[in-house]
Design brief:
The protein is of the alpha/beta class. The chain has 3 domains: 2-63, OB fold (Dihydrolipoamide Acetyltransferase, E2P) (Beta Barrel), CATH 2.40.50.140; 69-228, P-loop containing nucleotide triphosphate hydrolases (Rossmann fold, 3-Layer(aba) Sandwich), CATH 3.40.50.300; 248-322, Ribonucleotide Reductase Protein R1, domain 1 (Orthogonal Bundle), CATH 1.10.40. Helix content is 33%, strand content 22%. The protein contains 10 helices and 13 strands. It has helices at 29-32, 100-112, 129-143, 157-164, 183-191, 241-247, 249-255, 272-279, 284-311, 315-322, and strands at residues 2-8, 14-17, 22-27, 44-48, 56-61, 67-71, 79-84, 88-94, 116-122, 148-151, 172-176, 215-219, 225-228. Strands 1-2-3-5-4 form a 5-stranded mixed β-barrel. The radius of gyration is 21 Å and the shape is flat. The chain starts with a strand and ends with a helix. Residues 200-206, 208-212 and 319-324 have low confidence and may be disordered.
Length: 324
């Protein structure tokens, strides 16, 4: 029968089956052998429960309609899928001490999934209303028109309701952000109860400690479902050219007017991007981020191609595997 992986922790995946039952599962040996394919949170899977067996067995993973992918922190030539089959990526960042560089990276990864993207600025109550709204406008300019940017405060029910309205009934969102930004508190407010542990928060800066260690799909009354992702420190880019283009649409639009198609936006003649920096239309820091991410993606491609060459892998092999 079919089911959905609704929880991943240090034990076995919990699968909610189509008949309404939930069962802890292990992976079939044939599934994980060789390419080490494993189900992630949100995956639709095929499950069998053999007689006399205390766990279900995940026999297959159905094609994913969306996935959140990063470079595997343990292997510079491999990728890691963290979640699958979602409709929205919500990026949580605190209003106070906002990390703009990390937000840019999160936007690249979020846009690469191909689904809707939103930014929720948490702990708005720790900043004055004017400061919080100014930060929201700044982030909205950075994120672009296609991204909803909302302020949220645990003590403000209206702000939580606006976040809930991002997700239609039947849809799934993944909530990403570093540890201590208030993701678990936000999920609890959305769910209307204590479904996630919340760590203590320092009064001076609103930072909390890491509490969520598993990935769990939470039902939201009147809405869809949210996957509370543990605070992910490593957000290395993998195949994220489309995400880079979407997150830096302003730079890419300018680049279309460069004299040379392969312009690196450094010191080439006729560079429209450098001209925009010199005129003040584009911030130098914005261009620096774009070039840094582009260089990171190029390095990943080179390392991946080198690893494939060392394995003797052919291009036809890669195309055949992608088609499976």
């Amino acid at each position: 029968m079919e089911g959905t992986v609704v929880k991943l922790d240090r034990g076995f995946p919990l699968v909610r089956c189509s008949d309404g039952t939930s069962v802890r599962c292990e992976h079939a040996t044939a599934l994980v052998k060789g390419e080490r394919v494993r189900a992630v949170i949100g995956d639709r899977v095929l499950v069998s429960v053999p007689d006399g067996h205390d766990k279900g067995i995940i026999e297959g993973i159905l094609p994913r309609r969306s996935s959140f992918v990063r470079k595997d922190p343990a292997d510079r030539t491999a990728h890691q899928v963290l979640a699958a089959n979602f409709d929205l990526v919500i990026i949580a960042e605190p209003v106070v001490q906002l990390n703009r560089r990390r937000l840019e990276r999160e936007l690249v990864l979020a846009h690469e999934t191909g689904v809707r993207v939103a930014v929720v600025l948490t702990k708005a109550d720790l900043a004055g209303m004017g400061d919080a709204e100014a930060t929201r406008h700044e982030v909205a300019d950075l994120a672009g028109k296609s991204v909803d940017v909302l302020l949220a405060s645990i003590g403000d029910a209206d702000s939580i309701e606006r976040v809930r309205e991002l997700l239609a009934e039947g849809e799934v969102a993944i909530l990403i952000g570093k540890s201590g930004v208030g993701k678990s508190s936000l999920v609890n407010m959305l769910a209307g109860g204590e479904v996630q542990d919340v760590g203590e928060v320092r009064a001076r800066d609103g930072k909390g400690r890491h509490t969520t260690v598993d990935r769990v799909m939470v039902d939201i009354p009147g809405g869809g479902r949210v996957v509370d992702m543990p605070g992910v420190r490593g957000l290395g880019l993998w195949d994220a050219d489309a995400g880079l283009g979407a997150a830096f649409a302003d730079v890419e639009e300018l680049a279309a007017s460069c004299r040379f198609r392969d312009c690196k936006h450094a010191d080439e003649p006729g560079c429209a991007v450098q001209a925009a920096v010199q005129s003040g239309e584009l911030a130098q820091a914005r261009l620096d981020s774009y070039r840094s991410f582009a260089a990171e993606l190029q390095e990943v491609r080179e390392r991946r191609d080198e690893a494939r060459h060392m394995r003797g892998e052919k291009a036809s092999d890669r195309r055949r595997r992608r088609g499976r």
